[in-house]
Amino acid sequence: MIQNLLLAFSFQELLPIIIIILILFGGKKIPELMRGMGRGIREFQDAKNNVKKEIEDSTSETNKS
Protein backbone atom coordinates (compact mmCIF):
# COMPACT_ATOMS: atom_id res chain seq x y z
CA MET A 1 0.00 0.00 0.00
CA ILE A 2 2.66 2.50 1.00
CA GLN A 3 4.82 1.40 -1.92
CA ASN A 4 2.01 2.23 -4.34
CA LEU A 5 1.59 5.63 -2.68
CA LEU A 6 5.30 6.37 -3.00
CA LEU A 7 5.27 5.35 -6.65
CA ALA A 8 2.32 7.65 -7.34
CA PHE A 9 4.18 10.73 -6.07
CA SER A 10 7.56 12.00 -7.15
CA PHE A 11 10.07 13.22 -4.57
CA GLN A 12 9.33 16.83 -5.52
CA GLU A 13 5.68 16.31 -4.60
CA LEU A 14 6.36 14.36 -1.41
CA LEU A 15 8.91 16.75 0.09
CA PRO A 16 6.51 19.69 0.68
CA ILE A 17 3.87 17.30 2.05
CA ILE A 18 6.38 15.81 4.51
CA ILE A 19 7.53 19.27 5.61
CA ILE A 20 3.95 20.43 6.18
CA ILE A 21 3.18 17.28 8.22
CA LEU A 22 6.30 17.85 10.34
CA ILE A 23 5.33 21.47 10.97
CA LEU A 24 1.71 20.65 11.83
CA PHE A 25 2.23 17.57 13.98
CA GLY A 26 5.83 17.71 15.13
CA GLY A 27 8.24 14.81 15.31
CA LYS A 28 6.73 13.23 18.42
CA LYS A 29 3.16 12.97 17.08
CA ILE A 30 4.00 11.37 13.74
CA PRO A 31 4.48 7.77 15.03
CA GLU A 32 1.16 8.04 16.86
CA LEU A 33 -0.50 9.37 13.70
CA MET A 34 0.95 6.54 11.61
CA ARG A 35 -0.21 3.91 14.13
CA GLY A 36 -3.71 5.34 13.96
CA MET A 37 -3.66 5.27 10.18
CA GLY A 38 -2.41 1.68 10.24
CA ARG A 39 -5.23 0.63 12.57
CA GLY A 40 -7.78 2.38 10.36
CA ILE A 41 -6.47 0.70 7.22
CA ARG A 42 -6.41 -2.69 8.96
CA GLU A 43 -10.02 -2.27 10.17
CA PHE A 44 -11.12 -1.23 6.69
CA GLN A 45 -9.46 -4.29 5.13
CA ASP A 46 -11.03 -6.59 7.75
CA ALA A 47 -14.48 -5.14 7.05
CA LYS A 48 -13.91 -5.47 3.30
CA ASN A 49 -12.87 -9.12 3.71
CA ASN A 50 -15.91 -9.84 5.91
CA VAL A 51 -18.30 -8.37 3.34
CA LYS A 52 -16.57 -10.31 0.55
CA LYS A 53 -16.86 -13.55 2.56
CA GLU A 54 -20.55 -12.95 3.29
CA ILE A 55 -21.23 -12.37 -0.41
CA GLU A 56 -19.35 -15.52 -1.38
CA ASP A 57 -21.18 -17.54 1.31
CA SER A 58 -24.60 -16.31 0.19
CA THR A 59 -23.71 -17.00 -3.44
CA SER A 60 -22.60 -20.55 -2.64
CA GLU A 61 -25.80 -21.15 -0.63
CA THR A 62 -27.89 -19.94 -3.57
CA ASN A 63 -26.03 -22.25 -5.96
CA LYS A 64 -26.61 -25.27 -3.65
CA SER A 65 -30.40 -24.82 -3.74
Describe this structure in words.
The protein has 65 residues and is mainly α. It has one domain (2-64). The protein is 94% helix and 0% strand. The N and C termini lie far apart (39 Å).
Number of helices: 2
Radius of gyration: 19 Å
Mean pLDDT: 83
Q: How many beta-strand elements?
A: 0
Percentage of residues in helical conformation: over 70%
Number of domains: 1
The arrangement of helices and strands along the chain is HH
User: In this structure, how is the largest beta sheet organized?
Assistant: none
Low-confidence stretches: none
Distance between the termini: 39 Å
Q: Based on helices, strands and strand pairing, what is the structural class?
A: mainly alpha
Q: Beta-sheet strand percentage?
A: under 5%
Overall geometry: elongated
Record keyword descriptors for this entry.
elongated, single chain, 0% strand, mainly alpha, 2 helices, 65 residues
Brief sketch in words of this structure:
94% of the residues lie in helices and 0% in strands.
Topology (SSEs and partners):
Layout: H1 2-8, H2 11-64
